Amino acid sequence: MKIIVNKYEKKDINEMKNIWNEVVRDGNAFPQIEELTEVSAANFFDEQSFCGVAKDSESNIIVGLYILHPNNVGRCGHISNASFAVSSSVRGYGVGEILVKHCIEQARKLGFKILQFNAVVKSNTAALKLYKKLGFIQLGIIPNGFLLPNGTYEDIIPHYISL
Q: For 130-149, what is each residue's pLDDT tens digit?
């Protein structure tokens, strides 16, 4: 599998929506509860500063994506935020790392100075390991900051990296 990442195109929306919704249904990474429809997905992805789509260049199948946008406005508008979704069929094959590295470069190109993740769920050990490997700094722990599908709460660990 050879992964290439490019800016999303309108024709990618349905596959992007399906991968995004898979992560939403898993219920252990994204804060969203509602799944995207094709219409809401088109609006959601279009609102971002950048959306990167990872494709297997051999099959031309989308295997992951990320969204990049400002984390805040005004005096904090130089801080970006991103979310990553990888198809369960390819998790553990390095797609997430490729997406995060691409995102860091895009954030720099867009003039952001910091990339911050507000809510990395403590049980998301693959993400925590990757962010450490890539040099992200943990900011502490927010106890019970994430509602799991079973009604219990999990700690979240904000991270950042200077760009």
A: 999 999 999 999 999 999 99
Confidence label for 1 from pLDDT (cuts 50, 70 and 90): confident
Task: Show the 3-state SS of the chain.
Answer: CCEEEEECCHHHHHHHHHHHHHHHHHCCCCCCCCCCCHHHHHHHHHHCCEEEEEEECCCCEEEEEEEEEECCCHHHCCEEEEEEEECHHHCCCCHHHHHHHHHHHHHHHCCCCEEEEEEEECCCHHHHHHHHHCCCEECCCEEEEEECCCCCEEEEEEEEEEC
Architecture of domain 3-162: 3-Layer(aba) Sandwich (3.40)
Per domain, the residue ranges of the chain are 3-162
| Model confidence at 20: pLDDT above 90 | yes
